[in-house]
Amino acid sequence: MENSDQLVEFTIPQLLRWRTKKSASKIALREKDFGYWKEYTWKEYYDHVRKAALGLEALGIKKDSKIALIGDNIPEMLFIAIGAQSLGAISAGIYQTTLPEEIAQLIDYMDVTHVFCDDQEQVDKVIEIRDQIPNVKKVIYEDPRGMRSYRKDDWFIFINDLYKLGEEIHKKDPQRFTDHVDEGSPDDVCHLCLTSGTTGLSKGSMMTHRNYINMGVQLSKVDPLEPTDEYLSFLPFAWIGEQMNSFGVAMATGITINFPESVETAMDDLKEIGPHFMFGAPRIYENIRSQIWLKIDESYRLNRIFYNFFIKVGEKAASYRMLGKKMPTVLRIKSWFGTNMVFRPLINQIGLLRLRRAYTGGAALGPELFTFYQAIGVNLKQIYGQTEITGIAYMHRDGDIRPDTVGFPLPQTECKISEKGEILSRSPSVCAGYYKLPDKTREDFADGWLCSGDAGIIDKEGHLVVIDRLSDVMHNNKGELFSPMFLENKLKFSPYIKEAVILGDKKEFVSCLINIDPVIVGKWAEGRGISYTTFMDLSQKQEVKELMHRQVLDFNKNVEKEHYKIKRFAVLYKLLDVDDGELTKTGKIRRKYVNEKYDTIIATLYDEGVSKKVVEAEFVYQDGQKAIVETEIEYFTME
Length: 639
What we know:
Rossmann fold, seven-stranded mixed β-sheet, five-stranded mixed β-sheet
């Protein structure tokens, strides 16, 4: 069997070589560039890795050297990463949105000696910090546009020149690359994967070849993939979710990876590819749902009537389908009509018609949003894991999908709950620890178990239920427990709410800061003749505040416990943003930072005598300039 456990005895370059021998002419990679899809067979994939590896060796990269990769997802990212791994070197992805100062810190922490950038934007960041990274010997770039003046500086090298170096070495010594690949061991560290960094600078998880390949093997045991299946690579390469698929799943199953033309065109390119499986953080599915609601809102009145009727039918049908139960005949007939008349055309417009399974991870997805996708016929399943366990430890099985859980452990994964309620996991996909952080490694990898930092329980069916981060679980002043993440996800099911921050630890009631969704609320405002200029202007419109008041009223009606109800809330004047440090790269709230930044606004939430307050809003622009603007925050008290 192709995806058997025997594959974990290969390194990633060795498995690439094996795939090349098995299906040399099959398409392995596809990239859209200037509107045209360029294809690479497995043989061409292998040849590019060979040229990259030998070229990197000529630049001084050897076993245990570190090379950082910064940029959008392109095939060259894999050529360079696996080329370096072929030499026994270690690749490391850095998010393309990372600011120069943080890049300098990460390069220093990870002992990086070479950097690969995809274009001038990323190269310019590295130039800005050049004097802070004296150990970097070379910067390799892929896109030559705007780079003419840099070619005179031998600190830079164009990737095609790197390939030429590699090709010349291969002609002189045809066996050299093969010998390098043969020397690799599956338990060698091959990549440093950065954690999300909710409490500070990211840690570098030391990932081995076995970690990635084992993940691909075990995942395909639960949900088999065909070599003819298509996958769209639009997640940041620095995130474990993308590496899991590019290094692990693709190598273990032989699927084709497709690279969009740009981050901005990813959703349009998805329509052309029609992938068979998809993986994304909750924010991706929240955005797609917003697109769906916009399409329905802009549709004819009759279409809206059909949609509103059949979405209720779909939700009832999903409650049977998710648990593998037989539907009543009448419901099955209604569901068939809804699927074919409304939902199939709808998901075909988005590009999800061929999708057999979709996965979400990186943060919790609210049960309501989960049920929505199942209702329209998208087989969305929750996965749970961490960077340190190569992305996935637990996942739903078809016919046993419970929106409030994350399913069962993957094969060869063990789970237990510690005495303090922490989720612990053990698996061949658990990494070798954190780079240069022995104390933190001993703390988080105690006695062979990965300590997740998450609170959870195992229910009577054996499903894992994730409550929240242990450090984030809150208690009101009566000692009653609540999960801010659970309440935030429930609140965000409203199409008008982009982000929410639940507060109330050791307080007498729960309060909330709300970010409106600028697309949906903007469309709502335009339909009512409400003019606005900026996000701040829109968010502080009285009509918008009243709209948010209705959303919170609906939320309070639908929560199970009295102490879950929101008593006070305010609408924030700006979107929480990764670049401003309020969110992690995967969209998680940095609670400590948000609490400190908005401490004045938060404090006033608990001063019930205040209904309005003028605050100073600081905005940081892309060029680094700052602006201070005064704005009035209105506080709403729920009855």
